[in-house]
Amino acid sequence: MKWTLSRKMWVAGVTAMIVITTAGLLFGNNHNHDKTKVNNMTQKMMTVCVGRFTIDLPEGAEVEFTPARIASVDIQVQSGYTDQQLRSELEQLEQAVALKKNEYDRPSMEKKLDVEAINFKSTLVYYGREKPVAIMEYGQRVPGTEEGISIEAFGLKNSVAYHFTGKSLAVPRSENNVLKLVKNFEALMPNQIPTHPGFCIEKGLIRDPLDAADNESVTMFASLKGHPDVAIRLDTSINRKQIEDSLLVRDSESETKREYASHFKSLGKGQRIINAIPGEEVLDRVKDLNGTSAHAFMWEGPGLMNDVLAPTITLEIQTGKGRPGQPINSSLSDEEILQLWQRVSSSLKIRATATVSGGKTAAASKVALGQLAATGSACPQAGFWECKESENVVGGSRRFFREGENMPPATLTAPPSFWRKLSGESRSEHISTVWRLVDYTTLPDEDEVDSNPEIGGKPALPNSSNVDDSTPGRA
User: Fold this and answer.
1) Domains of the chain
2) For the whole model, what pTM was predicted?
């Protein structure tokens, strides 16, 4: 797939730069000029759908995606294709496969299948069956139980080619992955924001149902017109094994920053909730070894485990990106990059969708099911919310909140001590938490709310003197 210069610079720059990904030169001598420059840049914005999120970028930004990976299947997208070109690629694959045999010494080609995607046709090719992979148990090689098979799918819509590739998919566990993705795939026009629940890739949407086991991931890159040294990156992926150390922890433990401390100037650091998505940000101006200065801004939301609506999501803006291996001075001052960062990062949100829950549609709702809201933030949508704590929650972990209401901490009953057991005294503590929207609903009557803790009534708290206010083998 063709890569733009911006993405080439990003990839090469990360591996080539020894000290810093980027660094910053302090301009800012003319505050009004800085402000006007960014205002002009962001006067018109366009919305881009990335995974299950949307973000606003300056109009005219050049946007591209890495191939998305879902359920062990890579999805490549390439514009400017003709039907003849796509047929030629399909024929080349068939001819190459026809000349080979699989691991059972039989013809590699097994079948070709025409299927309907949501708004175009696609052809699937099954080939290359493999014998079960042997595994090691207690130092001994044990024959595996799952065969492998490779499946590729080709489709064309609006001169955009969609190529699905699944290599060595486990049979029968994963052999239908490509077919499932193709049947649920909707081709989109450039910058089209879909309304159906699902996962956005470049010029396309894989409609739900998808679950965490599908391990969806995609990365977007963007470059700005008139500022070729500025690069934007947005990445999202499911937490499947564990949640890594937070951004602030990694930053505090950075050996590079300790070794080259004089090269770094912090322009901001700390926890930051963006549209009810908890996260952390680190904003640095850094001087590179070649004497140039630019910026490296990052925000990261760690998400939750095995939750498609709460993945790890990382947003970065870097300046000073010249040709690969040749960092240059930033074209934006500190004042300008801070303004641009605020404008772009504050637009990040979970994409609102039209779906049905409890007999009600979310088409008119402001946020999507699964929206997160941390303790202390304003409730973005009336409905039922659940906190991440599931046990010993006073009033229950599921609560109704009105839009604009302050999201509370979770009040947990603490295990009683020996003396409290004797006295019968209870103890509770307030814990900062993250609430998740699980159901839309109409607003109950005030009397019902006041009398029912589950829909927003205030649960009776213990006496204030008892409350602790501290806070295998194949894919």
Assistant:
1) 5-64+217-350 (3.40.1000.10), 72-196 (3.40.1000), 362-468 (no CATH)
2) 0.73
